[in-house]
Amino acid sequence: MAKIALFVGSVRIDRNGIKVAHWIQNKLVERGHDVFFIDPMQIHLPLLDRMYKEMDNPPEELKKLRENVKDADGYVPITPEYNHSISSALKNTLDYFLEEYFFKPSAIVSYSVGSFGGINAAQHLRQIFAELGAPSISSSFQIPQVHKVFDNDGKLLDEQYNTRVKRFLDEFDWYVDAFKNQRQKGTPY
After folding, report:
1. Are 36 and 97 in contact (CB under 8 A)?
2. What band does 166 get if pLDDT is binned at 50, 70 and 90?
3. 3 in Cβ contact with 72 (< 8 Å)
4. In this structure, what CATH number is given to the domain that contains residue 159?
5. Distance between CA atoms of 184 and 189, rounded to whole angstroms?
6. Where are the beta strands (DSSP E) in 11-161?
7. pTM of the model
8. Cβ neighbours around 59 below 10 Å, total
9. Domain that holds residue 93
10. Rounded Cα gap, residues 43 and 104, in angstroms
């Protein structure tokens, strides 16, 4: 149906976010989407010195990442909440590109071990994606006490999340289709 770039936001060794990311990936694949799974632990990006467009000879791994970001019809960041914001690893990954994101929607998934599910990080991420030209859908998807929602193997323990995520992804799919249709007609840039 669509190409979706899913960004993993955490690089901690015992990260809960990888469980969330794989679960969301499976939900997107079940809907027929092609998912580009972007994990900072796999791509090993250095701290941003130059954006991709400013590089004379970008490394092959970065070229592939750029193509995935550029070819995507929408974005799903999976963000932890670190000190009331997103992780530096996620911000670093996102900032390598700009025009590649234009006129495509984002759908924010946040989590925390606390009771608010990363809502502060989600709100910051809305501002970031708006600046990137990939505004977020009106809903966001929070997972509070994430350590109680998935077991150690990443299996979902609370079935209410399957019901909640359906509505969230239904909305995202609507935005993906709407933006895709409008891009086919042309964009202001």
Report:
1. no
2. very high
3. yes
4. 3.40.50.360
5. 13
6. 34-38, 74-80, 109-111, 141-143
7. 0.97
8. 13
9. 3-185
10. 23
